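Q: Please design a sequence for this.
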């Protein structure tokens, strides 16, 4: 989300827009991705993260106290600057942005599926109570979006789901982030599969590791590199060691040059339990990689054309994931065909095409 926001803001200022980016958690840190000097960063320093580990009652009190402070500060900022459009990325402000007493048009840009709060609760707790809480939060979230001038969702599947509740829905894909040229030589092989993402429940690396154990038994000369950081780092390392595949699966941490790592790999694997619109898949297809992915909600089926540029398998099916990886390992010609087709598929996510749609929406909303 941060990378897309940064590149989108840079595009907008290059095309005559004035852009401010408002944050609540920045805490004096510099942006990870480069921003045009014309973009103003405004840090409100609300810090919703400071009370995450508090007891439930204190956590609830702190949340709503900070939410009120955030609403007051944001409303004052918007009035002082007279913005034409305010865009939320569905952070904490989504709870109140529709009710702000401002003249600006209001847009929410959702990088997750409609029921992401239910998915979040279910993947972490797997209890009836938390599942019910997730459904309640989803209903509240849907209600908070109805009075916006536009709700931008990322996939056709999302659009169809949201049209059942909202009349303000617009679908615009994310674009492929700026990167180097795609993979060219499919004759050589590094015997490497690559996966990228946060080390947490959503990305499903606890499913990918046992799948790779099945792969390693049949093709011990291949290995898997996982790039990312997160709270599951120690747990996943223990899982790798317990399964006896240390050295076959390697946790590589964070990379500032992930496009280089993609081009130096043979297969990309996505094992997420759920997604919004997986940016890493866009990067993988733009890099010319064949894909193996769980057919999770939402996004993979709109980037991966099954049997054309990759293989989609039943969500959560570890054996099917391993079989699909083995199928590509054993067929270099198929890997090459899928990889070349990935480059073609990626063209529909070209930045200029996607940003032209945003430009049209902003003019439509304001005018």
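A: Design:
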């Amino acid at each position: 989300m941060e990378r897309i926001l940064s590149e989108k803001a840079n595009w907008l200022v290059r095309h005559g827009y004035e852009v401010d980016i408002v944050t609540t958690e920045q805490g004096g840190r510099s942006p990870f991705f480069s921003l045009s000097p014309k973009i103003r960063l405004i840090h409100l320093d609300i810090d919703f993260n400071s009370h995450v580990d508090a007891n439930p009652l204190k956590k609830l009190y702190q949340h709503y106290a900070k939410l009120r402070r955030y609403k007051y500060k944001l409303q004052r900022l918007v009035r002082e600057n007279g913005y034409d459009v305010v865009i939320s990325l569905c952070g904490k402000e989504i709870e109140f942005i529709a009710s702000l007493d401002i003249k600006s048009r209001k847009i929410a840009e959702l990088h997750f599926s409609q029921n992401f709060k239910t998915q979040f609760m279910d993947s972490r707790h797997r209890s009836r109570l938390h599942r019910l809480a997730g459904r309640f939060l989803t209903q509240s979230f849907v209600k908070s979006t109805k009075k916006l001038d536009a709700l931008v969702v990322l996939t056709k599947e999302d659009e169809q789901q949201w049209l059942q509740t909202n009349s303000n829905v617009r679908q615009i894909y994310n674009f492929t982030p700026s990167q180097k040229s795609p993979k060219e030589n499919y004759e050589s092989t590094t015997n490497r599969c690559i996966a990228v993402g946060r080390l947490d429940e959503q990305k499903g690396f606890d499913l990918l590791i046992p799948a790779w154990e099945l792969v390693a038994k049949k093709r011990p000369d291949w290995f898997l590199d996982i790039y990312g950081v997160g709270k599951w780092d120690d747990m996943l390392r223990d899982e790798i060691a317990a399964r006896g595949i240390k050295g076959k699966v390697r946790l590589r941490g964070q990379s500032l040059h992930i496009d280089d790592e993609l081009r130096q790999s043979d297969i990309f694997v996505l094992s997420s339990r759920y997604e919004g619109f997986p940016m890493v898949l866009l990067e993988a297809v733009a890099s010319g990689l064949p894909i193996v992915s769980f057919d999770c909600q939402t996004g993979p089926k709109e980037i991966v054309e099954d049997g054309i540029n990759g293989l989609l398998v039943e969500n959560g099916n570890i054996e099917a994931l391993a079989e699909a990886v083995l199928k590509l390992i054993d067929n270099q010609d198929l890997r090459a065909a899928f990889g070349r087709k990935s480059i073609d598929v990626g063209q529909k996510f070209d930045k200029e095409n996607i940003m032209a749609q945003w430009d049209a929406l902003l003019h439509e909303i304001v005018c």
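Q: Thanks. Anything notable?
A: The first strand starts at residue 20 and ends at 23. The mean pLDDT is 92.
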